[in-house]
Design a protein that fits this description.
- It is built from four helices and four strands.
- The protein has 146 residues and is of the alpha+beta class.
- The protein has one domain: Gcn5-related N-acetyltransferase (GNAT) (Aminopeptidase), CATH 3.40.630.
Length: 146
């Protein structure tokens, strides 16, 4: 994947229900992501139209997939499976043994897709986040000891 298709890719993501976008999905944000993870992001095309995408990357320990999306008129044709397989193959080639992803809790269609691929929905974990842009003072918050 490269930035030549950024405008079309961003428009595709915006038009795909279930894809959550933020400031890190800007052109500069995607450029940073691809620079850190050059081998595991892919898109599917039908002619000159983007009909699928996945962003794959890792932090050296675990892989992560973002923005798996397939155009609604192209679903149930194996495009999503092939995109996932390509990303996972690339991550495995880099020594990554486990991969995670995030799905909105009300996105039943996506959860069913991942279950069909034998991914495990973890009920034993909670996602905990911190907005670095809002950080003032101690990154740990109050600075109170544990």
């Amino acid at each position: 994947m490269n930035l030549d298709d950024y405008d079309a890719l961003y428009a595709f993501w915006r038009a795909t229900p279930g894809v959550g976008l933020s400031t890190v999905d800007s052109r500069d944000g995607l450029a940073r992501y691809i620079a850190r993870n050059p081998a595991a992001s892919f898109q599917a095309r039908w002619g000159d139209q983007i009909v699928g995408s996945v962003l794959g990357g890792h932090d050296g320990r675990r892989g992560f997939l973002y923005h798996l999306a397939v155009a609604s008129i192209c679903r149930r044709q194996g495009i999503g499976r092939r995109l996932v397989a390509a990303a996972l193959t690339a991550l495995r080639a880099e020594g990554i043994e486990k991969c995670h992803l995030m799905v909105f809790s009300d996105n039943d269609q996506a959860l069913a897709f991942w279950r069909r691929l034998d991914w495990v929905v973890r009920d034993d974990l909670r996602l905990v986040s911190f907005e670095l842009a809002s950080m003032t003072g101690s990154p740990a918050g109050t600075g109170d000891p544990d």
